Amino acid sequence: MWRIVFYVNAWTVSLFLAAVAAVAAGLGVWRRMAPHQQRRATRVMWAACLVAALAATVVPDRPIGSGVPYVALVPGEGLWGSRADYLYASERHMILVLQTANAAMFVPLGLFAYAAARRPSVLRVVGGCLALSVFIEAVQLVMNAGRVVDIDDVIFNTTGSLIGCLLAKAAWAATGPTGEKAAGRHAAQTHPLRSWLGQFRD
């Protein structure tokens, strides 16, 4: 995971967000034309992103139990807290880059989870991603394989999932309702007598 620091900068983050926004727009168009197929495919994409996230965060870099347990429960301690006063600028920059990568890792999870839901809810998706991040930190603590358990990881993971959800929500609003929603809305607006007579037609 730490190797990502060599690739995270203003350009790569901007390109990543632009790519995610393009994916969200594509899913929005696909959803309008074929909502069932879009949801099925998106669930596969979500599962692939979940496996990648678990591989990056849970698979140990060293033997289990060989690390020194450390839990950081003060938000922002490594970036602007008292501990940051003893860090070099390059070390603080590396922490910021790693947290940016933590946020970016959960952007697709939030996007695909929102896109895969029949009745998407930002609150439910973000809450689920928050629970997933807490689970990952708990596993890292139990494994004790050299990874730092940090509340900032949870904060940035959750923020990334929120960004993904908001991109999907914006795409949904831009592309309009799906065919199934439009049909349901039309049926709700149909006169009751016409609807009753329609059942006797061939």
What's the layout of helices and strands?
Blueprint lengths: L9 H24 L1 H23 L13 E2 L16 H28 L5 H22 L5 E2 H25 L3 H11 L2 H7 L4
Parallel strand pairs: 1-2
Which terms would index this structure?
202 residues; mainly alpha; 2 strands; globular
Tertiary shape: globular
The major β-sheet equals: 2 strands, parallel
Q: Strand percentage, roughly?
A: under 5%
Count every beta strand, where a strand is a DSSP E run of 2 or more residues: 2
Please trace the helix and strand order, writing H or E for each element: HHEHHEHHH
Structural class: mainly alpha
The figure for the number of domains is: 1
Bin the helical content.
Answer: 55-70%
Folded structure, characterized:
The protein has 202 residues and is mainly α. Helix content is 69%, strand content 2%. It has helices at residues 10-33, 35-57, 89-116, 122-143, 151-175, 179-189, 192-198, and strands at 71-72, 149-150. A two-stranded parallel ribbon has the order 1-2. The termini are far apart. Residues 182-188 have low confidence and may be disordered.
Short overview:
With 202 residues, this protein is mainly alpha-helical. The chain has helices at 10-33, 35-57, 89-116, 122-143, 151-175, 179-189, 192-198, and strands spanning 71-72, 149-150.
